[in-house]
Design a protein that fits this description.
Blueprint: H1 4-42, E1 53-54, E2 57-60, E3 69-73, E4 75-78, E5 84-91, E6 97-105, E7 108-113, E8 117-119, E9 123-126, E10 132-137, E11 147-154, E12 160-167
Parallel strand pairs: 2-12
Antiparallel strand pairs: 1-4, 2-3, 3-10, 4-9, 5-8, 5-11, 6-7, 6-10, 11-12
């Protein structure tokens, strides 16, 4: 019995180069892939946040008769590979600005305040009277053509200062 053990060991050692021929290429390929993926990630190829962008928006002129709220609309673009979220807003007059989104329920729906509005990667958040907006409670007197400054706050991007032009209801602008 003892004599057969050294023979088996020699036999196993003799097959080692065969095993390397079989296992070597997949192991080498995995090592190369890991090195390439690590490099790709290190240079930002695996997704890198980029600051969001927005152009001028529009703000509805409160209707006559003492309207207690109005709404502002912007298009926010995300050129990055990482989704972002609009998490808050303020405006030059202070006061409460609420993020709102329309919740569809069959043929109808309702407006609800939300904690954040999504800005998809390589996409846009397009605010409109039919989908999402910034609701402003108790606005001061505003005039058509007036420009108002807002600061938008995001989960991943720095704050963004933007302006909105006051327009009459129904006179909406593309943002």
């Amino acid at each position: 019995m003892n004599a057969s053990r050294p023979g088996r060991l020699a036999e196993r050692l003799g097959r080692a180069p065969e095993r390397l021929k079989v296992a070597g290429p997949p192991v080498a390929a995995a090592a190369v892939a890991l090195a390439l993926l690590s490099g790709w990630t290190a240079v930002g190829g695996a997704g890198r946040p980029q600051p969001v962008e927005a152009g001028p928006g529009w703000l509805l002129l409160p209707t006559a008769g003492g309207a207690t709220a109005t709404a502002a609309f912007f298009t926010v673009r995300n050129p990055g590979d990482i989704p972002d979220q609009l998490t808050g807003a303020s405006w030059q007059f202070g006061g409460k600005v609420t993020l709102k989104q329309h919740r569809h329920q069959g043929a109808s729906g309702r407006w609800e305040p939300v904690a954040a509005l999504p800005v998809p990667e390589r996409g846009e958040l397009v605010m409109s009277p039919e989908d999402a907006d910034l609701m402003i409670l108790n606005p001061p007197p505003l005039t058509v053509g007036q420009w108002v400054e807002f600061t938008l706050t995001f989960r991943n991007s720095p704050e963004l200062r933007v302006k909105a032009e006051v327009v009459r209801p129904g006179g909406r602008r593309s943002s």
